[in-house]
Amino acid sequence: MQKSSESPMMTGNLLRDAALSYENLFFETKTMQYLITSIEYLKKSLESNTDNPLAYHDLTVAYYYDSKKDSAKKYLDFADKYDSTLIPPELREIINK
Length: 97
Known about the structure:
- It is a single chain.
- This protein is mainly alpha-helical.
- It contains five helices and no strands.
- Helix 2 (32-48) runs antiparallel to helix 3.
- The longest helix is centred in the N-terminal third of the chain and has 22 residues, at 8-29.
- 31% of the residues are buried.
């Protein structure tokens, strides 16, 4: 088996791209399995690259749509450590209620 030469950042970005594709499918079809798969890929993305503020943003949004407010809040807090402007104020207000 050939060893992959991909960096953790590249792997994390590829996983995030896959997650966003599943998230888009969720928005088009409202099929929850697509959202769940998106969340799984985003978590794997962060395992490869923990310094990815956009993945934290994406998890915040995904958990919001999955009605898991505690998890959305957790990832909102992580996203804020990198950039407090990533999460729109309207979503921030809903999650923090």
